[in-house]
């Protein structure tokens, strides 16, 4: 037995000395005249050397994204050979100040102070800091909402909702890739791999495995971070704790012990706990994120992911993206994520506005908006209140998933059928006219343009207005969208308008789902127990039936529709129609958000109304 231990020790020594990574503290070397250590000292030395060797092998090994249930890591293999490592020895390794054996670099105190000031500002309250340092990235345990990330309290909802939108993209529209492992092949996250036409995802959320959800989460994090890094790099911020490469219960014990009593109140606090790794390979970054997933599931997870996105973009680039870089990214007094944070995670740039492109006011003054198409989009209640105008980039994303903003919260709206974004003839014409008008609108989304710009719109859209209507619209020196739009609705198609005698050209019916990650008592999730209902605490998921009437207002549709007669009723004078009355419309603030995307939408649901707060 002693000979075998000596041989294992020599092997570990050779492996740990192949290069010069930081090594853990170990016993003093033996002098020539000193006696041989006791067997207990020898075993302790062996464990330390083998741990150092295992960490060295893990750093030098580039592997594809493995399944948590299938891939024993180098450190796990070492642990199997050395099962005597106890919880007590794990606790002794937990020290934020220890540098030996941990990977990545430490931020300088100047970088940490800049980062803290950029995120929280100088007068941030302890309550806000507590909100942001007590939110992990964890899925719901409720089967019906198992695809959703749970939010415990206000604050980081902008980070969670945006990440949730990307997670849904992978779970719904890339199920084959989430369910299998492709070894040693770089991950290509281009949306073109999957044809979007006529694709309908499954709504059987309870069938999702923990492995599939973890894979979707890690892929989403990787995609967002590389997007922030201009597709060139991703920076991953984790905790400065020795032993995070250990598998199983020991890793969770290390993280829990390290976070005991930890508070983040200054840049110096951040500097002590953060370790930063930069990757140019998506494959290796995926492996790192998978290994560090328990860290992001801990109470520091949401803040660590936000920091990773900010550092991937670069702090100087973040400030250059913003219209007013003097303001903190987390807004007072309630600690909500700003629009800049949400836009950073949606499009990779921390711009503060939601319109397309940028708005130039002359003299070098301009406001920055969304400059590119996006994977998942954004809708906001503030647009229905005329406080802003969401552009087509965010309103019409590549996938039918939207982050929904209210005055105080972010949630997620999504469809299973990709065809909900397909435009029919009427919608295509509407979009064409609106784009031409918005291109001339220099009012910041106010909805009016100059007479010169109006004539350009008429030329681009092929609209031939009667002279009396043209003179009336131009009489004030500027043209308001609402007045112009009413004229277009009354103008015949042959003249470039949208008047349709059939009334059927714009009909559309589809389903949407709304997810709110804040856990509350939910009637929809109640279960019958011995004849009594028991409310459950869970995130809220609501299915909405959406009807877009063929007429231009729901009232117009209800008034003009011809209803087929029932048995014994009057005949409809031989006039056949495919149009039927929709269900009576229900209303909630979410419906106002939906109508910024589908302006005539009529929505219905079962149970509690969907909540966006």
Automatic annotation (TrEMBL):
Single GO MF descriptor: cysteine-type deubiquitinase activity
Cross-referenced InterPro entries: EF-hand-dom_pair, MINDY-3/4_CD, MINY3/4, UIM_dom
Catalysed reaction, written as an equation: Thiol-dependent hydrolysis of ester, thioester, amide, peptide and isopeptide bonds formed by the C-terminal Gly of ubiquitin (a 76-residue protein attached to proteins as an intracellular targeting signal)
One Pfam family, short name: MINDY-3_4_CD
Domain Deubiquitinating enzyme MINDY-3/4 conserved: from-to ranges: 116-490
Regions of compositional bias (Low complexity) in chain numbering: 62-75
Keywords on record: Ubl conjugation pathway
EC number: 3.4.19.12
Task performed by this protein: Hydrolase that can remove 'Lys-48'-linked conjugated ubiquitin from proteins.
Family: Belongs to the MINDY deubiquitinase family. FAM188 subfamily.
Protein name as it appears in the record: ubiquitinyl hydrolase 1
Species classification: Eukaryota, Viridiplantae, Streptophyta, Embryophyta, Tracheophyta
């Amino acid at each position: 037995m002693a000979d075998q231990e000596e041989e294992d020790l020599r092997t570990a020594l050779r492996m740990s000395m192949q290069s010069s990574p930081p090594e853990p503290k170990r016993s003093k070397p033996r002098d020539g005249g000193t006696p041989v250590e006791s067997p207990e000292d020898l075993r302790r030395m062996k464990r330390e050397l083998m741990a150092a060797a295992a960490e060295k092998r893990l750093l030098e090994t580039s592997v594809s994204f493995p399944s948590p249930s299938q891939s024993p890591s180098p450190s796990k293999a070492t642990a199997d050979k050395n099962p005597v490592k106890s919880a007590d020895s794990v606790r002794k390794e937990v020290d934020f100040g220890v540098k030996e054996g941990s990977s990545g670099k430490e931020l300088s105190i100047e970088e940490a102070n800049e980062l803290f000031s950029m995120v929280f500002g100088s007068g941030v309250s302890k309550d806000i800091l507590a909100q942001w340092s007590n939110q992990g990235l964890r899925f719901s345990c409720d089967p019906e909402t198992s695809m959703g990330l749970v939010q415990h309290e206000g604050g980081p909802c902008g980070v969670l909702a945006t990440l949730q939108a990307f997670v849904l993209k992978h779970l719904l529209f890339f199920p084959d890739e989430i369910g299998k492992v492709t070894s040693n092949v770089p991950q290509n996250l281009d949306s073109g791999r999957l044809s979007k036409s006529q694709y309908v995802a499954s709504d059987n959320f309870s069938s999702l495995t923990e492995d599939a959800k973890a894979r979707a989460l890690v892929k989403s994090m990787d995609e967002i971070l590389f997007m922030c890094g201009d597709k060139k790099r991703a920076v991953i911020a984790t905790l400065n704790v020795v032993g995070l490469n250990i598998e199983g219960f020991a890793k969770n014990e290390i993280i829990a012990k390290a976070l005991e009593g930890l508070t983040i109140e200054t840049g110096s606090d951040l500097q002590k706990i953060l370790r930063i790794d930069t990757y140019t390979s998506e494959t290796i970054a995926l492996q790192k994120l998978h290994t560090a997933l328990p860290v992001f599931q801990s109470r520091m997870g949401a803040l660590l992911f936000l920091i990773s996105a900010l550092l991937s973009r670069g702090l100087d680039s973040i400030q250059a993206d913003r219209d007013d870089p003097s303001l903190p990214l987390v807004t007072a007094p309630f600690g909500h994520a700003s629009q800049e944070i949400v836009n950073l995670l949606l499009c990779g740039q921390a711009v503060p506005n939601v319109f397309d492109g940028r708005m130039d006011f002359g003299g070098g003054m301009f406001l920055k908006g969304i400059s590119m198409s996006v994977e998942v989009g954004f809708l906001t209640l503030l647009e229905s209140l005329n406080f802003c105008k969401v552009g087509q980039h965010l309103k019409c994303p590549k996938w039918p998933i939207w982050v929904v903003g209210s005055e105080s919260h972010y949630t997620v709206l999504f469809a299973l059928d990709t065809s909900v974004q397909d435009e029919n003839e009427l919608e295509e014409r509407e979009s064409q006219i609106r784009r031409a008008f918005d291109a001339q609108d220099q009012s910041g989304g106010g909805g009016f343009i100059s007479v010169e710009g109006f004539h350009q719109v008429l030329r681009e859209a092929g609209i031939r207005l009667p002279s009396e209507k043209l003179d009336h619209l131009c009489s004030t020196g500027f043209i308001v969208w609402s007045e112009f739009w009413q004229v277009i609705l009354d103008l015949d198609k042959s003249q470039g308008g949208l008047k349709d005698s059939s009334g059927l050209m714009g009909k559309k019916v589809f389903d949407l789902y709304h997810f709110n990650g804040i856990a509350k008592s939910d009637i929809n999730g109640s279960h019958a127990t011995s004849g009594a209902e028991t409310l459950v605490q869970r995130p809220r998921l609501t299915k909405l039936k959406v009807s877009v009437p063929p007429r231009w207002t729901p009232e117009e549709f209800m008034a003009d529709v011809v209803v087929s007669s029932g048995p014994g009723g009057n005949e409809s004078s031989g006039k056949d129609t495919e149009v039927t009355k929709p269900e009576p419309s229900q209303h909630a603030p979410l419906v106002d958000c939906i109508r910024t995307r589908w302006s005539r939408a009529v929505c219905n649901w079962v149970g509690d109304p969907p909540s966006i707060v």
